[in-house]
Known about the structure:
There is one protein chain. The protein is mostly helical. The protein has one domain. It has six helices and three strands, in the order H-E-E-H-H-H-H-E-H. The model has no long low-confidence stretch (mean pLDDT 90).
Amino acid sequence: MTDEDPSQQLLRVANHEAAHTCGHHHFGRPVEKIDIDRPERWSLGHVVPAQTEPLILPPGVEGDAALAWIDGQLYKGRIETAIIARLGGMFGGDDWRGEGCSTDRATVVQACPRKMDLPAWEDLVEVRAQTLVEDRRFNAGVKALAIALVERQHEPMPGSRAFEIIERALLEYDQALRP
């Protein structure tokens, strides 16, 4: 894909996939596995989301309130999906318009609500993702997971293990702030 040094490329891919995974964790979305050693040409790494439970209306929500609740949940899902997709390139230092982010960029575009202008949607997603990029606590999770992914680069990491690493990093970050 590039003339990049293999160890630098591995770290970039690990940061990219770790950021996606931390985004899933942040939004409470389960992950089945993370893989940064993929022979496929279309992707050097990949996060496989786990199956989630279907939406169930809260008790007593009916009629227009039910429709509004469903619309809200669908929008929430769209923005979360787009932010998770955008985070990878931001943490991996990838060119958002380049080949390495083409699948993520397509996910952001596909998540755009029909009634919204695409450039405005992309700006919104970038601003929301940037708040996580600037969050030192979130960064601690990405860094810890990226290191762990590099250490076991030739085998996919189960999502449950990745979430344990993230949670431990967040706990250590919080504890370091205590007097």
